[in-house]
Amino acid sequence: MRSRYSAFVERDEGYLLRTWHPRTRPPGIDFEPGMRWTGLEILGTTDGSAFHTTGTVTFRASFQGGSLVERSRFERVDGAWVYVDGEFPQA
Prior knowledge:
By secondary structure, this protein is of the alpha+beta class. The protein has 2 helices and 4 strands.
């Protein structure tokens, strides 16, 4: 999760697409012009250890003027953890 957050900060489209599940991967990333990310806080995790094939990470990502909370789902594909999708629970 931290590496994907850093990729959003750096606008590293290649990394984000490589770490996105092939089943849900978009053709490209539309970065919001002027978006300035300012911090990441991990709020919780489930599963995701070496013994699991799925896991979730709930996080708060702060940006200039606000924040968003997402519960992201990850799956292991060919030994690597990849982002599947996320939902936005009430903060």
